[in-house]
Amino acid sequence: MDASREEERYTYADYCTWPDDERWELINGFAYAKAAPSVEHQSTLLELAGQLRDFLKGRPCKVFVAPLAVRLNADAEDDSIVEPDILVVCDKSKIEDGKCVIGAPDLVIEVLSPSKAKHDKVIKRKLYQRAGVREYWVVDPDDKILMVNILRDGKYLGVLYFEDDSAVPVSVLDGCTINLVDVFEGL
Questions:
Q1: Which one of 39, 109, 114, 132 has the largest count of C-beta atoms within 10 Å of its C-beta?
Q2: CATH among 3.30.300.30, 3.40.50.620, 3.40.50.2300, 3.90.1570.10 for 38-66+83-184
Q3: How many angstroms separate the CA atoms of 85 and 46, rounded?
Q4: What is the mean pLDDT of each run of 10 residues along the chain (187 residues)?
Q5: Residues whose CB falls within 8 Å of the CB of residue 54, separated by 6 or more in sequence, listed in order
Q6: Which of 91, 80, 184 is nearest to 139 (CA)?
Q7: Which pLDDT score, from 0 to 100, does residue 6 have?
Q8: What was the pLDDT predicted at 2?
């Protein structure tokens, strides 16, 4: 798919026809190309996902890592399909089709890359808020900062955490904390 497709509007039906070796997201019908992640990005992602996986063993919620499509508005226009870096789904019915997640995950985590920082901090934040994602984390491995957005009355309230925070609570997972010292170690 060429870059000119970023100016047209699409739906999930269009998305399903695109080549499997290309990674795209749809936000309000507009296509955004996904770049290959860096080593720093992957290291951060794996540590976070590992901590979540360890906590969720034997529990009903499931953690997933990209690439996994999430159809945020599958019952409406079906024009917003994202591939969050990490997501947690606690409602089993949202993963029953086995192809993608249908509906808002409980937790979404995006690890920033320099070229997509504004996209994740502004565009995706608005999208996730509107879709009802209960908790949205934006991890900045360069500055070693975590912005946690918690949905309250339809709006995100943000809290900042830093590299020396060893017990960041995950509000949607009672009793779960993330150790940022381990996440940012060696970066």
A1: 109
A2: 3.90.1570.10
A3: 10
A4: 64 92 91 89 96 97 96 89 97 94 97 83 94 97 96 97 97 98 90
A5: none
A6: 184
A7: 59
A8: 45
**Which of 27, 32, 119 minimizes the C-alpha distance to 78?**
27
| Strand 177-178 with 168-169, pairing | antiparallel
pLDDT of residue 4: 46
Question: Which of 134, 131, 145, 125 lies closest to 107 in space, CA to CA?
Answer: 134
Residues constituting the chain: 187
With CA atoms as reference, report the closest residue to 184 among 118, 140, 148.
140
Is the CB of residue 10 less than 8 Å from the CB of residue 31?
yes
Task: Report the alpha-carbon distance of residue 100 to residue 139 in Å, rounded.
Answer: 24
State both tokens at 84.
């969050």
Residue 180: count other Cβ atoms within 10 Å of its Cβ.
Answer: 23
Region class of 81: left (phi > 0), else alpha (psi between -120 and 50), else beta: beta
Residue 126's identity, in one-letter code, is K
* pLDDT value at residue 115: 75
Phi, psi of 38, deg, nearest 5: -85, 170
